[in-house]
Amino acid sequence: MLDNLCDRLGELTIEYVKNESMSRYTTFKIGGNADVLVKIKSNEQLRQVLSLAKQFDTPYFILGKGSNLLVSDKGIEGIVIKLDGLDYIEINGNSVVCGAGASLRALCIAVQKASLTGLEFAYGIPGAVGGALYMNAGAYGGEMKDVVVRVNHIDKKGNSGSFS
Question: Which pLDDT does position 68 carry in this prediction?
């Protein structure tokens, strides 16, 4: 079944690696292999991979920056989705738009350089923006919910939406 899934990934020109060691993608540098590691370059590719996971009844795991992630020596069954191409950060005046794969540290540096405030609490938190939003990361009295105005998302079915 994974071979058929990988054939479809190839047809869609989505970058993937079979039996990839997860130790290369975690800060602790440990862990077994992922059956398939997919490197997403766009929201459309993410939709396609989620659709394929559903079609082939294959479990998936979305990987951010791999910080504080322990992967068993047995590895990860199914698809690991790495948000490589969703790491953009765009600042326009007082508005910031970034992808879920962006480093939280890089976001903090970018807003500081733009003379914006509010994310100071997040500078030392490792990981990606998507994970920080998902778990409402916070420190020193600040939390992501305090600074986020709107989140655009893609659900498990590949549908887009947003919430404020």
Answer: 80
